[in-house]
Amino acid sequence: MRFIFENHALDVGRRELICAGEDIPLEPQVFDLLLYLLENRDRVVGKDELFEKVWDGRIVSESTLTSRINAVRRAIRDTGKDQRLLRTVARKGFRFVANVQVDRPAAVLQSASHLVEGAPERLALPAFDRTAIAVLPFTNMSDAVEQDYFSDGISEDIIMALSKLRWFYVIARNSSFVYKGKSVHLKQIGDELGVAYVVEGSVRKDGERVRITAQLVDVSTGSHIWAERYDRALADVFAVQDEITQAIVAAIEPQLYAAENFRARRKAPDSTDAWDLVMRALSHYWRVTRQDNMVAQALLEKAITIDPQYGQALGVLAASHIFSAHMGWEDMAKALPVAERAALAAIHADTEDAWAHCALASVYLFTRRFDDCLAEFELALTLNPSFSLARGYYGVALAYCGRWEEGDRAARHALRLSPRDPFAAIYCGVASYSQFVGCNYEEAIDLAREALRLRPDFVGAHRVLTAAAAMSEQPELAAAALEALRRVQPTLSLSWLASEMPFKRDAEREQYLEAFRRAGLR
């Protein structure tokens, strides 16, 4: 793997830094420091974190760190005065701010590398039919970098509250948070996300006080439509979020606001401590890894112990178990009853929790209660029309019910709502499976390849690629795809496909099994 910036290239495997064809010598520790800053360029890296990761937790002086940072700057031809590439953030740490491209050799993708050739660069996504808005991650102005989760939580709650409105689309958290810690012009953000407005702000948490600043910006002109500052006791944080949401709505749609007098509301939990744990859990959940999912579940269970009626904690816990089982990280038979209990408890605590209804819908899908499944997904999307995760999962449920055209539209809509999303591979996989059900095998292959380009370990995309290649009479591709699939799902068999995948109709089940027979699965 190589990180490329300006006229430099850092080769990780060879541990070399090249500048304009010239080999720049680096001490091992300076190389490790530069590499860690590049790998974490989307955020500010604190000094304590650098001591832990680069110096293995050894106690070193501030002057030692300063000398190594200066050595990095000299190697990449930057200075402490200019800070073009490596920026010092006062009292926070350091962030690599240059534009970086990652050049991954084919070997990194392992068995999937040769399967993604020819994948489309972009999907044809539907345009928004009404105004869209993005809430950028609020800047953590507290002295402690580890308080990032708190400012992230404020941003996420505002996104969730705004998403309940019917007047405009709200870009999903996973896409807007891509810009965390980056200096990007708002016009560029507007173009990339397709939004007309951006909400940005900052959070300073100091003891039992919290100060939140927020502003609404028209990205086409750069003008501030609205700005406000809130300085409150920490116990009032939920009221502050509601006030911010109401002000944003009033600024964007004054006529509708006056006519409807609509205000997004959320149920605040009884305990700020529980809310704090849920925000920590969400910061792990959105990383979409097995280990982070386990950490998120542990944090959510702690929150529920503190507040057993905390609907959001219960809803996210249910969703995490279903997703874990879907990815093969957890046994489905064990995950389903846990997820169902949590989802039902979440709905009992808060009937308007879209997470809870989405999780219950997923439980119903894998227990073959198809009508209940679709009804729960539709209710989740009524409660939160901008909930990209629910819309993507709704697409796969529709496809399993044979309604493949609707499933494809739902998956593409999820991608449009959240175009830069860790779950984008799943949405591409849903669209791919939908096209397979519709017997559009070449389109299914293209979409599966795109899903694998985004996430080479996505077992669902491997399955669809294998099946679609077999049905389109491409035996070499089908054989290669099956070989790659067996590496990520070694226990796969025809009996597993027949029993574990929730086909509603016998015709779709037989179509899928026949494809795998042709591919050589027994």
Polypeptide structure, described:
The chain is an alpha+beta fold. The chain has four domains: 2-103, Arc Repressor Mutant, subunit A; 132-260, Rossmann fold; 270-384, Alpha Horseshoe (Serine Threonine Protein Phosphatase 5, Tetratricopeptide repeat); 402-522, Serine Threonine Protein Phosphatase 5, Tetratricopeptide repeat. 54% of the residues lie in helices and 12% in strands. It contains 22 helices and 13 strands. The chain has helices at 28-39, 47-54, 62-75, 148-163, 173-176, 186-193, 237-252, 254-260, 272-285, 290-306, 311-326, 332-349, 354-366, 370-383, 388-400, 404-417, 424-437, 441-454, 459-471, 475-488, 494-500, 506-519, and strands at residues 2-5, 8-11, 16-19, 22-24, 86-89, 93-96, 101-103, 132-135, 139-140, 169-170, 197-206, 209-218, 223-233. Strands 8, 9, 10, 11, 12 and 13 form a six-stranded mixed sheet that branches. Strands 4-3-2-1-7 form a five-stranded antiparallel sheet, with helices on one face. A two-stranded antiparallel sheet has the order 5-6. Strand 11 (197-206) and strand 12 (209-218) form a beta hairpin. Helix 13 packs antiparallel against helix 14 (370-383). The longest helix has 18 residues, at 332-349. It is globular. The model is unreliable at 105-113 and 253-267 (pLDDT under 50).
